[in-house]
Structure formats: structure tokens, C-alpha cells
Amino acid sequence: MRIIQNQTFDAERALYGSKDILVKDCIFDGPADGESAFKECADIQVDHCYFNLRYPFWHDHGLKINGSEMTEFCRAALWYSDHIQMTGTKLHGIKALRECSEVAMRDCEILSPEFGWSVRGMRMENCTAGSEYFMMRADHLTFQNVQLKGKYSFQYIEDSVFENCVFDTKDAFWHAKHVTVKNSIVKGEYLAWYCENVTFENCKIIGTQPLCYCKNLKLINCEMIDTDLAFEKSEVEATILTPVLSIKNPYAGHIMVPTVGELILDDENAKGEVIIRDTGTIKEVGKSCACA
Q1: pTM for the structure as a whole
Q2: Which of 18, 56, 201, 243 suits 195 as a labelling partner, its CA being 20 to 30 A distant?
Q3: Do β-strands 252-257 and 273-276 pair in parallel, antiparallel, or remain unpaired?
Q4: Which residues contact 20 (CB under 8 A, 6 or more apart)?
């Protein structure tokens, strides 16, 4: 492996087409303002480098990036690349990761609008993220101990598992399919509308109008805080451990809950049963009532 160390690069395609190299303690910045430093490379290791120029890693195969920084000016840093490992790295440019596959991230800091679109096969562990439209149309995600603050996250994702995470984000998991969220906190408005085959297990769900227009939705031993107008037109099987402010017109299934402040059942097609756990009472379809 060839080692490149303690150098500064600012030329266009500075290391284009390189293979089997270790780049260490280097800076990608300067007056030439060149783009695409590592385009079409393979088997590249990057250790403690600084990136302040655009599009450094496109069409690459086999990347290991450690302890590095990609600034807000390093836009669209990783696209169309595969077999990527990143540890202890800051990704602060817009659209930092897209159209990539087989990605592993650990102990990274993400501040990147529109991050992770159309990524296939990502493992993320012990990371923090701030992003709008985070991970849209991605699939086969496995997240552990990830903290996210943003908007419109995980829309149209498929075949993914999230565990021990904290997500503060509105409109999360819209149109998601075949997703499991375990032991996590999900805070935000309008959670998981139009999703299909999604399960929340041992989760805390916070915010208005969650889980509407869903198919084959499951909640297993979840808490729901400040949730109103929940489950409208959803097919749902749920065991909820906390009172719910209001439930509206569940389409089918069973919702077991300690109490519900208001049960709105004014749609003749809503056949879901709401069971008040302490009494075993099944509230009748077609009536509105205060059930606290």
C-alpha cells in the first residue's frame, strides 16, 4: 500500500483513479478549488484528513475513512460508492451520502440536509445526525444508538431495523414498509402515515396525530405521550401502556389502552376495537365518547 501523508491537494481530480493507498493527515483545500479528489478509486484508506472541497468520493469501491472532517463546503461527499466504512468522522456538507451501498458508520457526526437518499445496506451505530429528508428511499438499514433531529425522516424506506434510538423529527416513516423500531423514543408530528408492516416495540411515541392510514401496524408495549387523533383509518394491533388523548376511527384491529380521553368513532367503515384494559370494555363503533 502506498502512503501519502502530510500533503495539501486542491487540484481537480487530485488522486483520480488511485488504488490501494493510505492517505493520512492530508488537507483537501486551496485556491485551485478542484473537485472530485478521489473519483473512481478503489481500496482507499483515509485517516485524519480535512475536506473543504466538493464531491471527493464518487464512484469508489472500498473506502475506509477514519477521524476525518468534511466541512459544510464539502457538498455531496460520497455518491455512487460501495463498501464504505466510516468511524469518528464529521460529515457537515449538504447531501453528504447518496446512492451508495454496503455502508458502515460508527461514532460519526452528521449535519447534512438530504442525507442518505437511496442508500442500500447501511449499519449506523453511536452516531448523531441533524438532517432534513434523512435517509429517504433507503433500504436494509440497521441503526443502533442513533440520535436524530430533523424533519421528514425515513420516508419510503424498506426492510430496516432501529434499536435504542432517539428520533426528534416530524413526518417520520411515511410510506415505510417492513420496518421494526425497538426500545426507542420517537418524537414529532404525524408519525408513520401510510406505512405498511411496521412494528414499534417498547417505544415511547410523542406528538400529535400519529400512525394514520397504516396497514398491518403493530405496537407492542409502547407508551404514547401527547398523542391525539391517533390511528385514523389504520389497520392496527396495539398494546399501549399509557393513556391516549384521543383515538379516531381505527379501520380494523384491536387497540388495548388503559384510558383514552376521547374516542371519535363517526365513520361507519371504522371497525377497529378499542379495549380499555382496566375494565376489558370494548367501545362501540360509530359513537364518540369521553372514556377517561
Answers
A1: 0.94
A2: 243
A3: parallel
A4: 1, 2, 42, 43
